[in-house]
Amino acid sequence: MNKAKEVTIYDIAEKLHLSIATVSRGLKNSETVNKRTRKRIMDLAEKMGYRSNHFARNLRQQQTNTIGVIVHELNSNFMTSVLTGIEKVTAEAGYDIIIAHSSESFTKEAANAKNLFHKRVDGLIASLSFDTEGLDHFSPFVKKGIPVIFFDRVENNGNNSVVIIDNYKCGYQATRHLIEQGCSRIAHVTSSLNRNVYEQRFKGYRAALSDSGIAFDERWVMVKDLSKQAGLESARQILDMRPLPDGIFFTNDFVASVCMRVLKAEGIAIPDDIAIVGFNNDAISDLMEPALTTINYPGKDMGEIAAKNLINHLKGVYDINQTNCIIVRAELIIRQSSLKNKPDR
Fold it and tell me: Where are the domains of the chain?
């Protein structure tokens, strides 16, 4: 099937016996063209199926009104909420977004960055994959003066604009809460310690143990991915431990929920035998039994802040290079899964 020829302003001008300049101004609803002529132009354009070529016009103006977004996963409530925040701000500002998914692959992330660069995005918002090392694949953007803001998973070397939470503080608070509930054998189920988010949460975990005089034991630390299989594997490892841990700090709610289900099936009482804290405040955390204590990770706020700063930079309102690190507030939400010390009724 042959593709229909795209209607141009030349076609409209020929049909109406008007100059191209008059048709162009009429399509922009310019008052320099009388009202009746404007209506004739608009009516014929609609009848012929004319589409304004915003892309070509924007290229002439050295902009595409498009923001690129690179994410490492799409199947998480957190990332969905970040994208919701980005889309809300960009839509209000008249920008479209192009979303690219790295699937936790540095190779694919680099390919996505190259593709978005050649699509001439005006700016880029990115979160790094598990195995990303270095940021050379973003250097074409830097050389062209195209702003890049990293969020969540970043390389915070002081030279990049990043939007993050205080992962160290959150890791400390989560672990400290378990200690305050009487836990002294606290396991930690986390992910790649090469990424800032998990590295900093791990450091917070260790610091909380140290400050409470609890010796760190690497056997209590399980490094997994963020899959259902990771939850199953961590549950089996925990059940094989002697003695059993009396507390577990997970850096992901989904993995925590899978693990909890297995532990409960094996007769482990939560929180009486093992108190549990997750991370992200995903929707599942409040639907579980018992409801999961977690860190509220405000993804929508993070997305909105990243997008607002990027667009303000593009509009000349704000220079993102003046503030390298923006920290979004996160907080511990205490629910039944960690409350060994029941409050008095």
Answer: 9-52, 65-164+299-314, 167-296+332-338
